[in-house]
Amino acid sequence: MRRFSLRLTRPLTLAACLGLLPAALPQAQAADKIKIGFLSTLSGPGAALGVDIRDGFMLAIKLAGNKMGNLPVEVVMADDQQKADVGLQAATKLMQSDKVDLMTGMVFSNVLLPVVPQVLPSMVYISPNTGPAEFAGAKCNPNFFVSSWQNEDIPAAMGKYVSERGFKNVYLLGANYAGGRESITGFKRLYKGKIAAEIYTPLGQLDYASEIAAIAAAKPDALFVFLPGGMGINFIKQFAGSGLSGSVQLMLPGFSADEDTLKPTGNTLLGTFNSSHWAHDLPNEANKKFVAEFEKAYGRLPSLYAAQGYDTALMIDSAVTKVKGRIEDKDALRKALKAMDFASVRGPVKLNRNNYPIQDYYLRVVHRDAKGRITNRTMGKILEKHPDAFVAECKM
């Protein structure tokens, strides 16, 4: 990328030369392209999530003529393999060797939390997925933006719905990493009943025989689970095979009942309720275009992860447009990103002062649509214009 030089916007007048008038301030030239580092989980058990974010992100760029704010785009891809050490090495290369202008893409909190502190001193990072509490509150940072949600929010919406349904004894099962623990905490934040048990399993675990036996022994009336990627797929299959689904109502965050999970689990989740900030049947025009173009490009329905990747690209495009290509003016770029001046597939959304979204959260149910596909249908709104629980701690 051509580096910026300083120039005067107009010749100095005689008065300015004599010190009678101030000279015009120098301005940076617009860049000739934008270079984005896309670091994500593209292999391993969580790869489906990263692939969907990538596909949504790249679709938005393609539909914009491979430009952002009229600048040609170069996306440098890197795979963190869902490992923090690999992510750190890849991020260092993106910044130092590839010299990207900004970064995005990470899926999991266990990768993002050690990587982002190395990124933020020098550039903007936009999270298209995980939104950890650490950067939502006291450690909020002007270079850290979240286009998706705070980790607690989607589970919190399900906690509210479970309470409203009258379930009074819920068993909680989550993956033992930052995102998993925050998801369970989020459910508890708006759930008003009794907790039968709160169990965490290692990230990457695929056999849940002992956990299912413990659930059966506890005899809860409902079960809330957050197990991402292949973990959730395996658990759902094993839970259905155990016969417990007849006596224990399974309730899920949208992550665990989305397109990446529905296809491999078949009929298993039909009738299951889940919460999300997005669904492919939301009736706004931006969403209709996104869903149609995604199906055309990839031959499948988009997941919420793909929607987040798409919106992240639109967010960057709108910001680059606002700064007229002057992406090295970091103050202007941050202000433009904060504006969220684009038509989101979610409908109305804005950023709070901690750079996390304020948005609506919906109830969805898994059903078979008119084309015979097992997918989600929106049932209604659970939370409206919902801010995260940590913004009061942010001093920005």
How would the blueprint of this fold be written?
Blueprint: E1 6-7, H1 14-17, E2 27-28, E3 34-40, H2 47-63, E4 67-68, E5 71-79, H3 84-96, E6 102-104, H4 109-119, E7 125-127, E8 144-146, H5 153-165, E9 169-175, H6 178-190, E10 194-201, H7 209-218, E11 222-226, H8 230-242, E12 249-253, H9 259-265, E13 273-276, H10 285-298, H11 304-322, H12 330-339, E14 350-351, E15 357-368, E16 374-386
Parallel strand pairs: 3-5, 3-6, 6-7, 7-8, 9-10, 9-11, 11-12, 12-13
Antiparallel strand pairs: 1-2, 4-5, 13-15, 14-15, 15-16
Write up what this structure looks like.
β9, α6 (178-190) and β10 form a beta-alpha-beta unit. α3 (84-96) packs parallel to α4, α5 (153-165) runs parallel beside α6 and α8 crosses α9 (259-265). The protein has twelve helices and 16 strands. Strands 9, 10, 11, 12, 13, 14, 15 and 16 form an eight-stranded mixed sheet that branches. The chain has a six-stranded mixed sheet with strand order 4-5-3-6-7-8, sandwiched between helices. The chain has helices spanning 14-17, 47-63, 84-96, 109-119, 153-165, 178-190, 209-218, 230-242, 259-265, 285-298, 304-322, 330-339, and strands at 6-7, 27-28, 34-40, 67-68, 71-79, 102-104, 125-127, 144-146, 169-175, 194-201, 222-226, 249-253, 273-276, 350-351, 357-368, 374-386. Residues 1-26 have low confidence and may be disordered. It has 396 residues and is α/β, with parallel strands linked by helices. 36% of the residues lie in helices and 22% in strands.
